UniProtKB/TrEMBL annotation:
Main subcellular localisation: cytoplasm
Assembly mode: Interacts with RAD51 and PCNA. Interacts with PARP1. Interacts with TASOR.
GO biological process: DNA repair; negative regulation of double-strand break repair via homologous recombination
Keyword DNA damage (UniProt): yes
Name of this protein: PCNA-interacting partner
Mitochondrion as UniProt keyword: no
Signal sequence residues: none
Record-linked PANTHER family: PCNA-INTERACTING PARTNER
Family of this protein: Belongs to the PARI family.
Gene Ontology molecular function, alphabetical: DNA binding
Record organism: Homo sapiens (Human)
Length: 264
């Protein structure tokens, strides 16, 4: 669900860029469109629901984004599963309304309210914070793994481009996104091509002053070189299907950060 929401946010920012020149979007517009998108894709009633301007354009950009990234969202997977199991007897399928609740986070509402009545202790707070850190760590590691097997996955790049800090913030991602659109390439391929050209050109080569990626050379070089290291590790593992083996190969999370930041 997080990835779907991020894909929608990027699609809306891209649409705003085309109509107003700014690659940005407000959170309120994203949430409004998110609600409408879920109902529409799940074939649930959308009557009397508010929707932002240019929704059809946003929906097309969203669908194209997934297609160009070699991805399906959860609703696409759900619909394919329903089609495959439609003839199976006694098969309990998830209803569209249940999936809507899952994607909207409503299934956690009761638990969250119950937790509010429990006094917070240092131990319980530590456990909850630790769970959040572990969840974030898994998301980041899986994003790196996703990029290794699918170089067109722009969502993975969005998650990990500046984790750990490489000085590649919002401006760097926006510049990469614009370059990717102009060249009709994935963000990762644009970054890789840019860095490879500099590396092959040697000391006598420098990107032209007009190239917006020029200011991000150091961070992009760090990012691409780290992906190269992970790719080498993946090639050394006899059976890479178990993604945990890559993490064990790196030894632990602290070593992962050191390796990623160029310390090791």
């Amino acid at each position: 669900a997080d990835s779907m929401l991020l894909a929608l946010q990027l699609s809306m920012a891209e649409n705003n860029k085309q109509h107003s020149g700014e690659f940005t979007v407000s959170l309120s517009d994203v949430l409004l469109t998110w609600k409408y998108l879920l109902h529409e894709k799940l074939n649930l009633p959308v009557e009397n629901m508010d929707v932002t301007d240019h929704y059809e354009d946003v929906r097309k950009i969203y669908d194209d984004f997934l297609k160009n990234s070699n991805m399906l969202d959860l609703i696409d997977v759900y619909q394919k599963c329903r089609a495959l199991t439609s003839n199976c007897e006694n098969y309990n399928t998830v209803s569209p309304s249940q999936l809507l609740d899952f994607l909207s986070g409503k299934q956690y509402a009761v638990g969250d309210e119950t937790d509010l009545s429990i006094p917070t202790s240092p131990t319980s707070k530590y456990n909850r914070d630790n769970e959040k850190v572990q969840l974030l760590a898994r998301k980041i590691i899986f994003s790196y793994l996703n990029l290794l097997v699918n170089s067109k996955n722009d969502l993975a790049v969005a998650y990990i481009l500046n984790i750990p800090d490489r000085g590649l913030g919002r401006e760097a991602f926006t510049d990469l996104k614009h370059a990717a659109r102009e060249k009709q390439m994935s963000i990762f391929l644009v970054a890789t091509s840019f860095i490879r050209t500099i590396e092959l050109g040697g000391k006598g080569y420098a990107p032209p002053p007009s190239d917006p990626l020029r200011t991000h050379v150091k961070g992009l070089s760090n990012f691409i070189n780290f992906i190269d290291k992970l790719d080498e590790i993946l090639g050394e593992i006899p059976n890479p299907r178990g993604c945990k083996s890559i993490c064990w190969k790196i030894n632990n999370w602290n070593e992962f950060w050191k390796c990623s930041s160029g310390q090791k």
